[in-house]
Amino acid sequence: MRFIRLALFASTMAACTGTEFNVPPIDTQPDAGPNGPSNDAGHAGNDAGDADAGPQQYFVTTVAGTGEASSVDTQTTTAVGPGAAVLPTFNGPTGIAVAPDGSLYVADYYNNKIRKISADGTVVSTYAGTSTAIENVTWKDGDCTTQATFNGPIGIAIDTKGIVYVADTVSNAIRKITNDAVNGCQVSTLASPASDPNFPRPGGGLTVDADGNVYFSDYDKNTIRKIVTNGEVVTTTIFAGIPGTVGADNGPAASATFNCPAGIVVDKTNTFYVLEQCGNDIRKIAPDAVNTVSTLAGLPNQAVGFIDGTGEHAAFNTPFGLAIDASGTLYVADSLNHAIRKVSPFGEVTTLAGLRDAAGNGMSGHADGQADKATFWSPAGVAVDSSGVVYVADTGNNMIRKIAPAP
Predict the structure, then answer these.
(1) What is the pLDDT of residues 27-42, one digit of tens each?
(2) CA 348/CA 77 separation, integer angstroms
(3) Ramachandran area for residue 307 (φ above 0: left; ψ -120 to 50: alpha; else beta)
(4) CA-CA distance, 385 to 117, in Å (whole number)?
(5) In the 3-class helix/strand/coil scheme, how is 287-339 assigned residue by residue?
(6) 3-state secondary structure of 218
């Protein structure tokens, strides 16, 4: 395998001991033949299934990206003949989020940029970031397209006002992007070691609650952190987990333990869900007096697998990205299963999209089409819009994909 990784850390699966950080591991090359055999009879079928499996079918299409690892903006995503615009490209897209107006924002990791895809999918542009250099020595605030730089942006979240937050991992900072009529598009730093000497390195998980508080996964120290802004004062607190302790203990947030927390989301009841890349499960943090942590889905003992089921009878393989819709349904970028999983509020796990071989293993590739025949290559990010359409940062393929009901 090769890994999209942060160069400050070695790229080995030892990351899942909680001592190192990796963006999701990516297979060296996709499996041969993206249209391989159907699901093994011993595994539960996809939500998308065949026509006799139920009335709802889903299809996967490519929104943007050619597979080439580079940074090209364009005004169309489909070449329509001689002289058509050059198609847009990405380089390691990881985080993805849907704005209130329906446009998509993508943390384009290796390009050190935040990319924007218009709501109708016809315009791909660079929203913020001026350098594509890998691992910039420095990062800068300022005007989005003439001054600001990023260094390994991996997670992204958008609040109800349209403010964009970025987990700028190699910069060791949470960045904030505002855009108004007076100042235009500006990048600032919300939190970093400059504001808090003990500020940790943010992982890929980032979310904003209804009050505007920002939460992020501290992958290195296995905690969930909260950023509170009071005027000019920014403080970072531990919301859940014991710094430096790896584990799977449930209970009050202050004594619960985590294992490589990655994706994080919050629902309308202020319940948080945390996806653990090394724990291969989903944890739930209740909005009670002690913020009780429990395990919603995933095999015990951090076991890896590709199994649909409920609670501890379901299995994931190095998942990374997490999204939630208005009904409380979760969507998981199950990176090394090369699939997008769907999780009910009660912990029932099904496969929304992705192909399995005869042995039930996930197959990588870049095929569009019916969801249970479509393929991905180590997807890292997932987002869902208000109508239930799911968008995927297909990291290994350098593409943005879309999963939607059949027209």
Answers:
(1) 555 554 433 332 232 3
(2) 36
(3) beta
(4) 14
(5) CCCCCCEEEEECCHHHCCCCECEEHHHCECCCCCEEEECCCCCEEEEEHHHCE
(6) strand
Cα distances from 11 to residues 26, 52, 169, 377, in angstroms, run 11, 44, 15, 18
Beta bridge partners of 68: none
Average pLDDT over residues 372-383: 97
Q: 309 with 349: CB under 8 angstroms?
A: yes
Percent of the chain with pLDDT over 70: 82
343 to 79, 322, 329, 346, 347: CA distances (angstroms): 36, 10, 6, 8, 6
How far, in Å, CA of 285 to CA of 27, rounded? Answer: 32
How far is the C-alpha of 217 from the C-alpha of 202, rounded, in Å? 6
pLDDT at 93: 97
pLDDT in tens, 262-282: 999 999 999 999 999 999 999
Q: What is the DSSP string of 224-282?
A: EEEEEEETTEEEEEEEES-TT-B----BSTTT--BSSEEEEEE-TTS-EEEEETTTTEE
Q: Is the pLDDT of residue 359 over 60?
A: yes
Residue 119 to residues 69, 116, 152, 193, Cα–Cα distance (Å): 23, 9, 25, 36
Count of CB atoms situated within 10 Å of the CB of 195: 17
What DSSP string describes 144-201?
TTTT---SSEEEEEE-TT--EEEEETTTTEEEEEEEETTTEEEEEEEESTTT-TTPPP
Tokens of 128: 């913020």
- Residues paired with residue 297 on neighbouring β-strands, in sequence order: 282
**How big is the chain, counted in residues?**
407
CA distances in angstroms from 265 to 28, 272, 286, 332, listed in the order given = 30, 6, 12, 11
The average pLDDT across 180-206 equals 90
Dig out the tokens for 345 from the structure.
Answer: 């509020």
| Residue whose token pair is 């319940």 | 271
How many Cβ atoms sit within 10 Å of the Cβ of residue 343?
A: 26
* CA atoms of 167 and 205, how far apart (whole Å): 8
CB 257 within 8 A of CB 222: yes
| pLDDT beyond 60 at 48 | no
Tokens of 122: 């016809």
The pTM (predicted TM-score) of the whole model is: 0.89
